[in-house]
Fold this sequence. Notes:
The protein has a domain at 2-50. 71% of the residues lie in helices and 0% in strands. The chain has five helices and no strands. The longest helix has 20 residues, at 18-37. It starts with a helix and ends in a 7-residue tail after the last helix.
Amino acid sequence: MRGLISIFLAWRAQGVESDTARAYVAAFYSSLAAAAEGSAEPLAALRDEAATPGGLNEQSLAFLGQSAHFALHVDSLQGILDRLNGVGKKP
């Protein structure tokens, strides 16, 4: 989470007002967490609902999908799973 918030701090450094950056970050993570926690829907369905056609999330998703961004997250989560299962070495 610290790394993800750091990304938004960098956005702030580009001139976005602190209150605006904080409000966007808080709303983004809060809404995703609430949707996942309060729903029995599969995560894929929640993912699709979170990207309003023509919206900010869809724009960001399209941009990030052009890189290795999501593959890196998957690799990071695999490392966490391996560590929890006692596989491999600790960082």
